[in-house]
Structures are given as structure tokens and as C-alpha cells.
Amino acid sequence: MLILKPHQMLAHIKKYLPEKPIIVEAGAFDGRETIRMAKLWPQGTIHTFEPVPELYKQLKENTKHLPNVICYQLALSDATGTSTLYISEKPTKPGRASQANSLLKPDKRLELSPLIFPRTIAVPTMTINDWAAQHAIDHVDFLKLDVQGYELNIIKSCQRMLATVKIILTEVEFVSAYQNQYLYAEVKLWLETHGFIMIAKDFINETDWFFGNALFTIPIH
Predict the structure, then answer these.
(1) pLDDT at 221 (0 to 100)
(2) Of 124, 144, 161, which is closest to residue 213 (Cα–Cα)?
(3) DSSP element (H, E) containing 60
(4) What are the φ/ψ torsions at residue 46 (nearest 5 degrees)?
(5) Residues in contact with 79: Cβ distance below 8 Å, sequence separation at least 6, in sequence order
(6) Is 53 helix (H, G, I), strand (E, B) or coil?
(7) Core-most of 53, 137, 140, 209, by most CB within 10 Å?
(8) Which strands form 197-201's sheet, in the order they lie side by side?
(9) Residues 166, 17 contacting (CB under 8 angstroms)
């Protein structure tokens, strides 16, 4: 099992993907990781999702020079429709959305970080299967999920498209940062039960901090 720093994860993934991968990124924030992926895979296509209007505006502005990035102002989810999104803010920057927004109500996150969640908004949601059907996309090579506790919900709802996925990079939590969320052990078990193996992570144990990132792939036979 490799222990990688967060900034090493994407570079490590490159050898597992084709030259022109189809990438889906949920929870794009302002596009900083989107830009890295666009440069690592200049012949690939990055479909990136950010539901918060002000963050989506930043994402569009920051990636407008990248022809291989397509932005969507919606939240990937386990249902297509509309949902409540809990907006995070830094206390020192009131009124400005931070990057811990979630479809789940915050729980122990309120004790473990200084972020506050003073407001909610209604956002459009879509499953990966419905999005893929709508845009005539027949496969996804790489799934990158950073959606604050809702990652496995998204994965479980897209098993048709999941059958085409080669690699998943997902945030995981070790405590209930958000109400009714899946924890790391549950995410790992579900993915392993469905043919994935964990090949890398950015944490040594589950007590140093309350979340981390884990990398899963389908073995090549």
C-alpha cells in the first residue's frame, strides 16, 4: 500500500489511464485540481461539477482557457432532481462559500474544524448514469470525488457507468463529519466487494485527522 501526499495522487494515477481519458470530477470548487488534470491529460476530457453558483463562476473563469474542460453547475448525487446543499464558510470570510459544502447536514465537522455552515441553498442534482445518458457518454475512465461524505452515495447510484471506470480517487471520512454519511471502512468494503482494490492513500492511520483520500483501481488481468 502506497502512502502518497495529496499532490502526488494525480501524477501516480497517470499510468493507469489511457492517453485520452474521460474524467468526471465532482466537487470542483474553484478548479485548482481541474487545471492540474487538464495539464496531465491534455488530450483527455474533464467533466467537472460544482453546484454552488459563486464557486461555479470561479471555476468557469479559471478554466476558460482549457478546451478539454467542460463545467456543469449541478451536484452529482444518487438522485436526479433538486436537493438542499449546506454551504460552508470560514468565520473570517462571512458570506463566501468555502470548499466543504455538502448534501448532508454537518455533524462532527463542526467540532473538528473552524468552518461554519450558516446557510443552505437548493441545487440541481443528477446521477452519473442520467448525466451520461443525457450527453451520450458511454464510459468514464477516472472518477474523482470530493463531495463531503456523499461519495459512496454517488458511486452506488451509477453501477451501469461504474462498470467502465478504471480508477477512483475519493475523499473518505473516519468519523461522522456529516450526518448519515458512509465512513471509510464502509466505502472501502463496498468498492472491494465490487472488484476494486485500494492501491494508495494519503494517510497512515485513521486517528491523525478526520478525513483523507484513497485511491482504488480495477486490477488488470
Answers:
(1) 52
(2) 144
(3) helix 53-63
(4) -105, 115
(5) 125, 127, 157
(6) helix
(7) 140
(8) 2-3, 197-201, 211-217, 167-173, 142-145, 22-26, 45-49, 69-72
(9) yes
Task: Give the helix/strand (H/E) hosting 33.
Answer: helix 32-40
Going by C-alpha positions, the residue among 214, 128, 132, 216 that lies closest to residue 166 is: 216
* pLDDT tens, N- to C-terminus, the chain (221 residues): 899 988 899 999 998 999 999 999 999 999 999 999 999 999 999 999 999 999 999 999 999 999 999 999 999 999 999 999 999 999 999 999 999 999 999 999 999 999 999 999 999 999 999 999 999 999 999 999 999 999 999 999 999 999 999 999 999 999 999 999 999 999 999 999 999 999 999 999 888 899 999 999 998 75
What are the start-end ranges of the E strands in the chain? 2-3, 22-26, 45-49, 69-72, 75-76, 81-89, 116-126, 142-145, 167-173, 197-201, 211-217
**Residues near 160 by Cβ (< 8 Å), separated by ≥ 6?**
129
Residue with cell 462559500: 97
For residue 32, is it left (φ>0), alpha (ψ between -120 and 50) or beta? alpha
* Angstrom distance (rounded) from CA 95 to CA 180: 26
Q: Which of 160, 156, 120 is nearest to 138 (CA)?
A: 160
What is the model's pLDDT at position 146? Answer: 97
- Cell numbers at 195, concatenated: 472488484
Distance CA 15, CA 30 (A): 26
